[in-house]
């Protein structure tokens, strides 16, 4: 049996390996999920929400144990494991407990006058079985959130957690086992790329993927073979624009936290800063001062995935070769751990990978701009569009700039935190992905929207049905002019024939 090795990235300690699933095991899991799907879909939403409540309470009751375990698998500080990976899950669970009934209730919509007497509404129905392929940077939050959203909407789910932190998949499995879901409703398929490919080949009814652009393309191509819908939550290269009238202390604090929290391994990390020329030197001094205060294991954690450390080093080498200056940091630990020093870089431009490609590590490159138009142009000069930040005390300017940024989210005098509001949709544009979750759309994205037009059945026909007649044509011409024309009085001239034809739908032909 093949296994997934595991270490604590912050200490180098070897942790228990996790057995890897075969393709046959994935297919068997899909069969179990298919068998369970009708029963779970027909379970009243109120009962499904009771299971979600049990999960929320279990997480809260065991939060210290879960936090310690999660930190050991990922190298995170326990503070960041709790505040960024666990607390947001309990928050969104509570949000859906409160709002899911309304979100998934049939929604009435208006009916055109030509169908008077009918009513129209939208129903939200489960899709079936959802395949969730999760990343390693926030392996708890970015696994559990789409899974619980799918379950609340009435679907079964199979999670393929990241092989870079396989113990987290075991941890999630244990949490869900504690709430007593029916067999087959939720399963965890442990493994690497082959397991993910097997899950796609098993033809779930939707695939929800969080990860890199390159892997997202492959999953989308494989899913297209069977027309499986996909949602892709991909990478970012998030810009932070700092105007000269910004609160300097807040902007510097935001840049340091936004770049170095979780060792920069956040899809919405501050990956490039554009500072207005007048504020550049004071801003840089503040950022360097605050970065120097970060201490390994005290406010600053380890990276999680060794290949990502190599990407960080590659981006820094490219930048330095093209004239950039490393102001502080820039070195990986040489002690068997995955620590990488928090790094501030100046003298950067858009010829460098550091300013164009997703670095996904603890690096903060800083560049200057002169005008608002230049700041917007630089921020939008990216294949990514996940999040952006604008810092200024002029709220009119902030909102004006925010409207011009091509991004799935914009924070004003904030960084990253829009993703933590469960009421807001989350997702990117351009190569940062497609689709949205969180908020109401987080349940709708795992639902089939069924449009229903219901007639009481008392009319003998509709105005558009056979038999056709010149009077019918006159009525439709008059109705078109009356409802939509520039001179509606013309339509009123036909009111008698319109009324006669509409009432005639109740008569036998």
Brief sketch in words of this structure:
With 509 residues, the protein is α/β, with parallel strands linked by helices. It contains 18 helices and 22 strands. The model has no long low-confidence stretch (mean pLDDT 97).
Written description of the protein model:
By secondary structure, the chain is an alpha/beta fold. It has 3 domains: 26-235 and 438-450, Aldehyde Dehydrogenase, Chain A, domain 1 (3-Layer(aba) Sandwich); 238-424, 3-Layer(aba) Sandwich (Aldehyde Dehydrogenase, Chain A, domain 2); 460-505, no CATH class. It has helices at residues 23-42, 45-61, 63-74, 78-104, 141-152, 166-177, 193-201, 213-224, 248-260, 280-292, 306-321, 353-356, 372-380, 395-404, 441-444, 470-484, 488-492, 495-503; strands at residues 3-7, 14-19, 107-109, 119-126, 129-133, 156-160, 186-188, 206-210, 230-233, 238-242, 270-276, 295-296, 299-300, 325-328, 343-346, 363-369, 384-385, 387-391, 409-412, 429-430, 433-434, 447-454. Helix 2 runs antiparallel to helix 4. The N and C termini lie far apart (73 Å). The active site is at 233, 267. This is Aldehyde dehydrogenase. GO terms for molecular function: oxidoreductase activity, acting on the aldehyde or oxo group of donors, NAD or NADP as acceptor.
């Amino acid at each position: 049996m093949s296994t997934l090795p595991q270490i604590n990235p912050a200490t180098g300690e070897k942790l228990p390996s996790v057995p890897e699933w075969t393709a046959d095991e994935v297919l068997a899991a899909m069969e179990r999920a298919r068998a369970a799907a009708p029963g779970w879909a027909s379970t009243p939403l109120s009962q499904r929400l009771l299971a979600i409540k049990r999960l929320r309470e279990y997480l809260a009751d065991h939060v210290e144990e879960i936090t310690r375990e999660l930190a050991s698998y990922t190298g995170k500080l326990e503070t960041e494991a709790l505040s960024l990976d666990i607390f947001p899950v309990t928050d969104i669970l509570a949000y859906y407990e409160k709002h899911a009934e309304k979100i998934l209730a049939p929604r009435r919509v208006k009916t055109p006058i030509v169908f008077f007497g009918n009513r129209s509404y939208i129903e939200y129905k489960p899709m079936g079985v959802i395949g969730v392929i999760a990343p390693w940077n926030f392996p708890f939050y970015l696994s559990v959130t789409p899974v619980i959203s799918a379950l609340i909407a009435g679907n079964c789910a199979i999670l393929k957690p990241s092989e870079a932190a396989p113990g987290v998949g075991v941890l999630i499995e244990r949490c869900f086992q504690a709430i007593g879901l029916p067999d087959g409703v939720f399963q965890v398929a442990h493994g690497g790329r082959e397991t993910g490919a097997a899950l796609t080949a098993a033809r779930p009814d939707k695939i929800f993927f969080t990860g890199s652009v390159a892997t997202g393309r492959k999953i989308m191509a494989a899913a297209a073979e069977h027309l499986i819908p996909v949602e892709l939550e991909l990478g970012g290269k998030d810009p932070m624009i700092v105007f000269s009238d910004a609160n300097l202390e807040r902007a510097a604090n935001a840049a340091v936290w936004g770049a170095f929290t979780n060792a920069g391994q956040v899809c919405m990390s501050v990956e490039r800063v554009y500072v207005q020329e007048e504020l550049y030197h004071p801003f840089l001094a503040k950022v360097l001062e605050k970065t120097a205060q970060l201490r390994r294991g005290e406010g600053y954690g380890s990276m999680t995935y060794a290949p990502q450390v190599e990407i960080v080093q590659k981006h820094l080498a490219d930048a330095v070769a093209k004239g950039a200056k490393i102001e502080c940091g820039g070195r990986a630990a040489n002690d068997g751990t995955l620590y990488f020093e928090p790094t501030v870089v100046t003298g950067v431009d858009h010829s460098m990978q550091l300013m164009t490609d997703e670095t996904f590590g603890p690096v903060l490159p800083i560049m200057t701009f002169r005008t608002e138009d230049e700041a917007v142009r630089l921020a939008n000069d990216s294949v990514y569009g996940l999040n952006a930040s604008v810092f200024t005390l002029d709220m009119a300017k902030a909102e004006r700039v925010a409207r011009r940024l091509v991004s799935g989210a914009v924070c004003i005098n904030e960084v990253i935190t829009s993703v933590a509001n469960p009421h807001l949709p989350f997702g990117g544009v351009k190569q940062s992905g497609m689709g949205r979750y969180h908020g109401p759309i987080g349940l709708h994205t795992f639902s089939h929207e069924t449009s229903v037009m219901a007639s009481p059945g008392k009319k003998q026909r509709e105005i558009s049905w056979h038999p056709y007649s010149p009077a019918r044509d006159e009525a439709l011409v008059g109705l078109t002019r009356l409802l939509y024309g520039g001179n509606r009085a013309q339509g009123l001239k036909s009111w008698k024939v319109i009324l006669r034809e509409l009432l005639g739908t109740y008569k036998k032909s």
